[in-house]
Design goal:
Elements (H helix, E strand, L loop, with lengths): L4 H17 L2 E6 L5 H13 L3 E3 L3 H9 L16 E6 L5 H12 L4 E7 L3 E4 H8 L4 H39 L1
Antiparallel strand pairs: 1-3, 1-4, 2-3, 4-5
Helix pairs in contact: 1-3, 4-5
């Protein structure tokens, strides 16, 4: 069923807005997935703050040509039935959502991605991105490293204080 020119223009405007505000966009071939599988993927993505879009690749190409960062990107890899996952908040989450879902459903095949900094990414680059820890996890690790010396000093002083108290107690009882 063909869609009207107005509807196409609206879709292209929405895609342009989504892709230009997204830090990264990952895409995957979804041929063979059931509607229930795609709904499950959408629910998982929604919980992670990722927007999922299923649109014609031709409309994505038109939207990409309207974004300065993607004007010179080779879009020849946008073939077949593709599902797009984008996030404006985190660079890793779209790749992680698609990659994790692909592990459970082998019909979903990660095909590549788009990044405002590097342009087009290969499937291997997207999978490598998906293996990175999340932003919150990295922040937690940095904070733990910064607090490590404080914890070490506290533990050392606490140990000496306990030894002193044990010595005083032993002296008082004798």
């Amino acid at each position: 069923m063909a869609i009207s020119r107005d509807k196409k223009n609206t879709l292209v405007a929405e895609l342009t807005e989504l892709l230009s505000s997204a830090k990264t966009t990952a895409f995957a071939a979804y041929q063979g997935l059931t509607v229930a599988d795609i709904q499950e993927l959408r629910a998982t993505a929604r919980e992670a703050g990722v927007t999922i879009k299923v649109v014609k690749n031709r409309l994505v190409r038109v939207a990409l040509s309207g974004i300065d960062a993607y004007k010179d990107v080779d879009t020849s890899s946008l073939n077949g039935q593709l599902i797009y996952a984008a996030s404006a908040e985190d660079e890793v989450v779209p790749a992680k959502v698609l990659n994790d879902f692909a592990k459970k459903n082998p019909m979903l095949v990660v095909a590549g991605g788009l990044s405002l900094e590097s342009g087009l990414m290969t499937a291997d680059e997207v999978k490598a991105l998906a293996s990175l820890p999340s932003k919150d996890q990295l922040i937690g690790e940095v904070i733990a490293q910064l607090l490590s010396p404080v914890n070490d000093v506290t533990n050392a002083l606490s140990g000496n204080l306990h030894a002193l108290l044990d010595g005083v107690e032993a002296k008082a009882t004798s």
